[in-house]
Amino acid sequence: MDAHELLELAWLIPAFPAAGAVLLLLFGRRIGEPVAGWIATATIGASFLASVAAFVALLSLPEEERRVVSDGYTWLRAGGFAVDFRFLVDPLSVTMILFVTGVGTLIHLYSIGYMHGDPRFGRFFAYLNLFAASMLVLVLGSNFLLTFLGWEGVGLCSYLLISFWFERDSAAVAGKKAFVTNRVGDFGFMLAMFLIFWKLGSLDYAAMEGAGGLAQTTVTAIALLLFLGAVGKSAQIPLHIWLPDAMEGPTPVSALIHAATMVTAGVFLVARAHPFFEASGSAGTVVAWVGAATALLAATVAIVQNDIKRVLAYSTVSQLGYMFLAAGVGAYSAALFHMVTHAFFKALLFLGAGSVIHGLHDEQDMRRMGGLRRWMPITAGTFIVGWLAIAGIVPFAGFWSKDEILAQAWYRDDYGLWLVGALAALLTAFYMTRQVYLVFFGNERWREAAGGHDAAAGVAGDEPAEVAHPGAGAHSAAGAHGGPHEPHESPWTMTVPLGALAVLTVVGGFVNLPFVEQGLEFLGEWLHPVFEDVEVVHAPSFSTAFALSTAALVIGVGGILLGRAFYRAGLPSGGEDPVARRLGPVGRVLENAYYFDRGIARLVSGPLGAFARFLADGFDRGGVDRAVNGVAAGFRLGGEGLRRLQTGLVRNYALGIVLGAVALVGYVLARSL
Asked: What is d(CA 248, CA 201) in angstroms, rounded to the nearest whole number?
């Protein structure tokens, strides 16, 4: 079997997890724990192996042939509109499927231990498999509509997984919030597809070659509408509000959404549709500044959050802003490089946070943690690796990818973007240092929290009501781990993925080292066939590149030292945060995330609600409904009048014929005179 024949089997990559989802949805309850989890892990693992085979096959082809569209069938046909169900295998899609399936497999394995004891264990893994399958369809689709099918699939699965513990009202609300917010972005995506078909006559990605021939206004409109879709899916301002609330789902869901799947879809869409952004020019500027603003805004909010997962949620929003900053300036390879490294270290951080929550019996408030490195050495060690990576410390993966983004902004003379990105990087190093010290170092505040719980509940192992979940029984049962509230290390099914991700976080940056002359920019060269029409900008000199890398490292180290200065000893008794205290009213604004949620809630319940009621009562019922009902009433009255002429008596009909004949004769005579 040659490379082309092997790549024709690309449909197997999403088929494996899709088959697992169907099997577990039908028989998951009967299969039970832990077999259902192993089946789901095996199917996504098989998909990863198929992705590796696709990578090897594509790599064996000459660069100009690394674009294979698999055989398929015509999915939709209506007049001149036709859409094929085919998969596109090229360096971009292969890069996506490798980390989606690779990181996804580790998250599935981790979930076997984390979800132990949950009554809906099989259903959870069915949703995870369906999520992965939808994401794979999204990135492998050969046209916008097939990508949109996967796009909507991950949106549905996010709703199902975020609100998985729907017994909690907060989880149910968070799921609906994510679903509704994403519909706003989807509206933009659909309008963009309408415009693309209208102007180019096809939704295939190959049709984008004609983007340069479109009018400037048209191509800019298409690019900005596609970006609106990306803003919703990848949580950029102002549609970022759903992502922090997505923490209501189980921690593996947070890792899957925030690291390997859903939120990266928007960056992928901008990269895949780059001909529109390149032809527009101004659209790229919008993308870059929205990304930069999002990176800075989310980083400022993260510095005062107390929930261990919520800090990471705002961190994800900020890091996605970095990716859009890179894509906006035309550095698509840098954006994808950071997407890959972010998948490694952010999955590691989320799964590490889940291990902490598991070991502390579902405690998520960092003010009730501290000193956990002695009790959870594997979790602490791997989490610290993720921290150093996201803070931008050499030689961890995050340093290389974040430095590349900042350097590309500088090389293209976008110094304002560089400054905003550098400030966001400083804040990132600071709030991640704060998190590490509050959780793993300093005073053991969990002892006071445990004593308070025992005194209040009088029962060993009771949990705070606000963090308990339906599947928490196994997490809370300390049993063999010592006292009822003593922290404990997680089982091997959770620590093995942590170790694997820690290794990837250390070595992941080496796939695209900024040494062009030495041929070490592997990812950039691999992606070159996809972005060959995009201008590549390299460092004007070694000294410039070295100075920028040094500045990036100094920024990261400075943020770490600043965070250590504030939180080295943990928190004082009572849990008052020293930074929040110093910030005063500004701190309250940051704690409430600039009141975005409250503002949007008031806008929806106020002016938008009033406008909706006007449309419903005044325009729809008072205008459209009355017009429709009026036409119907007119026809009804006319029918009733005509019905009186139909008496059913023959003599009446004969009289009518005679009268009609007389009238006709009279008309003829009158015309002849």
From this structure: 43
> How many CA atoms are closer than 13 Å to the CA of 388, on its beta-carbon side?
17
Structure tokens at 518: 């030495």
Measured distance CA(14)–CA(42) in Å, rounded: 13
| Rounded CA separation 362/368 (Å) | 11
Residue 394 tokens read as 């050499």
452 confidence band (pLDDT: 50, 70, 90): low
Cβ atoms within 10 A of the Cβ of 60, count? 12
Residue 478 neighbours by CB distance under 10 Å: 17
Q: Is 88 in a helix, a strand, or coil?
A: strand
pLDDT of residue 461: 32
Are residues 361 and 395 in contact, defined by beta-carbon separation less than 8 angstroms?
no
Q: What is the DSSP letter of 78?
A: E
Q: Which amino acid is at 76?
A: L
Can you state the angle between helices 308-328 and 415-440, rounded to 10 degrees? 160
SS3 365: strand
* Cβ pair 152, 178 in contact under 8 A: no
Q: Give the helix/strand (H/E) hosting 82.
A: strand 81-85
Round to whole Å and give the CA distance between 252 and 107: 6
| pLDDT: which is higher, 378 or 572 | 378
Inter-residue contact 235 to 158 (CB < 8 Å): no
- Report the Cα–Cα distance between both ends of the chain, in Å, rounded: 95
Residue with tokens 């976008």: 414
Q: What number of other Cβ atoms are within 10 A of residue 271's Cβ?
A: 24
Quote the pTM value.
0.86
In the chain, count H helices and then E strands.
29, 4
pLDDT of 459 reads 36
Q: CA 87, CA 400: separation in Å to the nearest integer?
A: 32
Residue 361 has pLDDT above 60, yes or no: yes
Q: Where are the alpha helices (DSSP H) in 81-120?
A: 91-114
- What is the spatial distance between Cα 496 and Cα 503, in angstroms, rounded to a whole number? 11
Q: Is 371 left (phi over 0), alpha (psi -120 to 50) or beta?
A: left
Rounded to the nearest angstrom, the gap between the alpha carbon of residue 157 and the centroid of all alpha carbons in its chain is 11
According to DSSP, the residues that pair with 307 across neighbouring strands are 365
Structure tokens at 527: 């992606």
pLDDT digits (tens, 9 = 90+) for 228-268: 999 999 989 989 999 988 888 888 888 888 777 788 999 99
